[in-house]
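Here's what a typical entry looks like (Phosphate-binding protein):
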Amino acid sequence: MKLQRKNMLRASALGALVVSGALVLTACGSDDNTKDGGAASGKPSAAAAGDIKCGDAKGKLLASGSSAQKNAVDLWVKNYMAACSGVEVNYKSSSSGEGIVAFNQGTVGFAGSDSALKPEQVEESKKICTGGQGINLPMVGGPIALGFNVAGVDKLNLDAPTIANIFNDKIKKWDDEAIKKLNPGVTLPSTAIQAFHRSEDSGTTENLGKYLKAAAPEAWTYDAAKKWPAPGGLGATGSAGVATQVKQVDGSIGYFELSYASAQGIKTVDLNTGAAAPVKASAESASKAIAAAKIAGTGSDLALKLDYTTKAEGAYPIVLVTYEVVCDKGNKPETLATVKSFLNYTASDAGQKVLSENGYAPIPAEINTKVREVINSLS
C-alpha cells in the first residue's frame, strides 16, 4: 500500500511538472521556458540528438528578435546545448524590429523576425555582411489565434470582414447582426466588445494586418505594419499581455500565438474562409495554409509569399512565418560554424518535429529542403 501511494504521489508530481512546463512555455519573454522530455531535463531526445551535428561549433552565439518563435527556440537551444558541450546559444526575446536592428549593428549572429527584411534593411545589412547581404530563412510557422471571452458563448465563427470591423471599432456589441448571421442558433449577449491589440510594434500585428488587408480590403483599409493602425480598442504589452486581458475581461477578443490560448484555456474563433466549414486554429490547419506559400525571394533569400485568401478545406490563413536572418556571405568568422550547426539542427527533421509537438507549424518539406541548402552555403 505504501509503495502504491508513493507511486501515485510521484505520478501526480510528474503530471504537475508537465502542466507547469506547458504554462511556462507561453511566456515568450521569460528567461527559462522549459518543457517535458529532453528540453526540461537538459538532455536532448534520441531523435533530436541524432540530428544535431556540432561540427566546429564553439563559444557563445548571441541572437535576438521575434518573441513569437521564442518557445520553439528555447526548446531547440536546450537540445542543442546538451548535445554540443562548450557551446552557448543565447536568444533574447525582444521584437522582430529590435532583432533586425541588432543584426544590422553586428551585435548578434542571427536575428529572428516575423516578417521578411525590407529593401532598406537589406541595404543596411551590406555594411555588416562583407561581400554579401542579409537573407531570410523561414524556420517557424504557426497560427495567429483570435481568442475570445464572452460569457455563455463557447463557440464562435467569424469571417474576415467581421473581424476587421470588430478591430476597427465599427462593430461594438456581440449581438451585432453581422456576428449573429455567422452564428445561427447561438445566443449572443449585448455585451460591449473589448478588442485588445498589441501596444508595441509587433510582427504578429503586421501579419494579422496582412491577412485583413488581403481578405477584407473594403473593411480593412490600413497597410500592414508592426504598429497597430486602427482607432479604438485597448492596448496590451506582448502576446502574453493580450492573452491575459482576454482571459480576465468579459466581452473581450484579442490575437496571439495559439500556444497562449492553449495553455490558458482561452476559447478561439473558428474562421469562415468560404470553405465548406469554418476552420479551427491549429498547427495542422496552419500547415495547410503555409504549404501553399511561394518563395518570393531571389538567390539565397527564401522570403515567402503567403496566400491569405485561400479557401482550401481545412486551411487556416491567419498565419505567421518567422525567419532567421543571416548573412549569405560575410558572417562573423568566430560564430559562423555555430550559426550553421545550430540552424542545421533547427531545420532538420527532428528540429521541425519540435514545432509540431508544441503548437507550431513546421515549414513545408519542399521549402525546408532549400533552407538546408542555403544554410550549408553560408560563408
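Residues 2-24 form the longest helix (23 residues).

More examples are in the samples folder.
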